[in-house]
TrEMBL record:
Residues 407-552 form the Thiamine pyrophosphate enzyme TPP-binding domain. Residues 10-123 form the Thiamine pyrophosphate enzyme N-terminal TPP-binding domain. It comes from Micromonospora fiedleri. The keyword Transcription does not apply. Keywords: Thiamine pyrophosphate. This is Acetolactate synthase-1/2/3 large subunit.
């Protein structure tokens, strides 16, 4: 516990315990039952007491996603506050991403007053739910409704303890309006999650460590399959050391920069090519309907939750599983193989002479020296690869970034979940947490709209954290166009000139929208203009301190159209051929 003046209200106790637990920011959405937080924050600043910075957010989805961006960079817990049940609902799919992204965030929302004298608006009856926590219970590790009888600071410390414990993730706290303003004792220590104790994982079961070490040294062709090693820079270095020391190939996702892209041990080969597979913190290392390991392959499974207990039905097999911290596990395996015998050394030497061809060719695709024609996802990736500096932050949610080189841990981020509208707000939170680091968010046109772009741009301006947003504009949703065509190749829906439910016709003018908010906006329709447009966007962000949006047109789903006239016409106009 930390000593100091205790808070004058439950809301003050909440903020004090949050600050003591390492929370630096409260991403705040206004609500009539949340005013106690505003006053508590002002009181703490006035008296020089520790308190999270209160950041005003105009939309709850943006607030929670920006909080994710903060935790990605800082590694610390974050906090959000939303207005009653409707504000909590406005978090939407971001709650799904918070869970699958392993973000230690305390999601808070208010609760309407229930005392008759305080119910001065009809909405207080409408906002009262039997069980508000049930809205998020499937997506959080812990939920609680604070009462006036509770020690508010201790409740927050407990919630953040759960959020930070492996595997980290979001927790939920409901704050009734009366409780926030309820007076608390004026003395006593401030509880924290650290005072309660944050458990740490070790290297795992020693038997599994030894077995993995033996298998990796004697295998004909071993592979490590990972998704989340890159959360810890130390684990990235240890994985690179393991790959180089033993000649072990690595099949890594792009959730993070799990292995530097200039490392020669990357592979994209199918899993049935390997006789030993070590799954290292990967929720879905393969999909049995698409590929599966050989029946005689030995599989070891390691991570904070090696049985993926968040998933109701999980059929992926393993010969050994152990709960472990990836960095500690890798260090333990390296220590074991340090005593490999001569026979093992010969096997390792043979493997080390032949890095995978995919690894050597990984960085060879640069989009061509002479770029011409219309932009495509591959050409956009190539332009980004040439444009980005090693320290730049990149968030993405639209196309494969394999050819966008990332060699520094903590510079590549993917949402982990499947709810769109994440990239721009996450880049904003990440840039703020990184002290204003240059951030580029890559998103599709549909996902850009999902992410409340006007709120994102406002937040960037308010916090002086401008981001370069690259909108890959293909005029619609893949799910409603190409997936539709795959499911119904001879159907009537795909035969329509404008595929209802899939094409976004007319296509919004994202560049004009950005300019209307005082930001830099530019439409790019020629591949040859990509490099200069990215440079102009960087200048706007770094020199002029305004957000930048590049609306990059790529061929439309199904039709392949790049015609601005087509995208501006309505479905009714599509059928009019008389001029």
């Amino acid at each position: 516990m930390t000593s100091g003046p205790a808070a004058a209200s439950a809301a003050s106790a909440v903020l004090a315990a949050a600050a003591a637990s390492g929370v630096q920011r409260l991403w705040f959405n206004s609500g009539s039952e949340l005013t106690s937080f505003q006053e508590a924050h002002a009181q703490a600043r006035h008296h020089g007491q520790p308190t999270p910075e209160l950041i005003t957010c105009p939309h709850e989805h943006v607030a929670l996603t920006a909080a994710m961006g903060e935790t990605m960079v800082s590694g610390r817990p974050a906090m959000t506050a939303a207005h009653a049940d409707l504000g909590l609902l406005h978090h939407g799919g971001a709650i799904h991403n918070a869970m699958w992204g392993d973000h230690p965030i305390m999601i808070m929302s208010g609760y309407p007053p229930t005392r008759a004298e305080a119910r001065t608006s009809p909405v207080f009856w409408k906002q009262q739910r039997w069980d508000q926590g049930s809205i998020v219970r499937q997506y959080v590790k812990w939920d609680y409704k604070l009462s006036a009888l509770d020690d508010a600071g201790l409740v927050v410390a407990r919630g953040l303890q759960v959020a930070l414990a492996p595997r980290p993730g979001p927790v939920y706290l409901a704050m009734p309006e009366e409780v926030g303003r309820y007076p608390v004792p004026a003395d006593g220590p401030t509880p924290s999650a650290q005072m309660l104790g944050i458990p740490r994982l070790g290297p795992g079961d020693p038997g599994v460590v030894s077995e993995v070490a033996r298998r990796l040294t004697t295998a004909r062709r071993p592979v490590v399959v990972t998704d989340r090693v890159g959360v810890n820079p130390q684990a990235v270095a240890l994985l690179a050391e393991l790959a180089d020391t033993l000649g072990v190939q690595v099949r890594a996702s792009r959730y993070r920069m799990n292995l530097p892209d200039d490392n020669p041990w990357h592979t994209t080969d199918a899993l049935d090519q390997f006789d030993v597979i070590v799954v290292l913190d990967h929720p879905v290392p393969w999909m049995p309907a698409v590929e599966r390991p050989r029946d005689d392959a030995w599989i070891g499974w390691v991570g904070p939750d090696p049985i993926e207990s968040r998933v109701p039905l999980y059929e992926l097999r393993a010969d050994a599983r152990t709960t472990a911290d990836p960095a500690a596990f890798l260090a333990a395996v390296l220590a074991e193989v340090g005593s490999a015998g001569p026979g093992d050394a010969d096997s390792i030497r043979r493997r080390r002479q032949h890095p995978p061809a995919a690894g050597r060719a990984r960085r060879s695709t640069d989009g061509g020296a002479a770029v011409s024609g219309v932009p495509t996802p591959a050409l956009i990736a190539a332009a980004l690869d040439r444009h980005l500096r090693p320290d730049d932050l990149l968030t993405w949610e639209v196309f494969d970034t394999t050819t966008v080189s990332r060699t520094k841990p903590g510079t590549l981020f993917e949402k982990g979940g499947s709810s769109l509208g994440w990239s721009v707000a996450a880049a904003t939170g990440a840039s703020i947490a990184a002290g204003g680091a240059h951030a580029v968010a890559v998103t599709g046109d549909g996902s850009y709209l999902f992410g409340s772009p006007d709120s994102c741009l406002w937040l960037q301006q308010q916090c002086d954290a401008p981001v370069v947003t690259v909108v890959v504009n293909n005029g619609g949703y893949r799910t409603g166009t190409t997936t539709l065509a795959a499911h119904y190749p001879g159907g009537l829906a795909v035969a329509e000139p404008t595929v209802l439910g899939g094409h976004l016709t007319p296509s919004p003018d994202f560049a004009a929208h950005a300019r209307s908010q005082g930001c830099y906006g530019e439409r790019v329709v020629a591949a040859a203009d990509l490099a200069a447009a990215l440079d102009r966007a960087r200048t706007a962000v770094e020199r002029d301190r305004v957000p930048a949006v590049l609306d990059v047109w790529v061929p439309e789903h199904l039709t392949g159209s790049m015609d601005p006239g087509r995208r501006a016409r309505t479905p009714a106009d599509e059928g009019n051929t008389d001029g």
